[in-house]
Amino acid sequence: MRKILIIILVIPALYFSATGLYKNIISAKNDFSVFYGKTLDEKYEVIDGDFYRFMVFCKSVIPAGAEVLFYNPWKLYDRAYGDRAFYRFEYERSKARFYLYPIKVHAIPYDNKLVEKRELDYLREEEMFRRVSYIIAYYPDIEFPGFKKKYTFDQNRYILVKE
Q1: Residue 75 sits in which domain range?
Q2: Judging by beta carbons within 10 Å of its beta carbon (0-12, 13-18, 19+), is residue 72 exposed, middle or buried?
């Protein structure tokens, strides 16, 4: 009786382990075929597409060490991503910091009630506009007094420079 019970428990465990392993092997094979032989820049472009191309554009015109504001409005994400909006919103802000390094990237929470509670990464608006020389506008929905559009990637993504 004990052997039968062990066999009844072991066979399904082996089956599910084998199917899980098979799925992981297929997934790894697909990832490998997508990324194999590509440069790091090409891999980033596969992952982030147009956003990555915009960040490369920004890095090419903004000098290293500059302080910039990356502005991406919350409403854009709330409308497009629903429940996952906050994660996409923060993901793109984090990626902007990563892709633009050594440029110092700041962010202002503006109209996101979830972000306003977090003081850690954000400076107050007045201090922000005193410190930054550039604003990276990613689908902006407001005007920035004291800054003018200088570099344009496309109609909705551009860089403003302090006047």
Answers
A1: 40-162
A2: buried
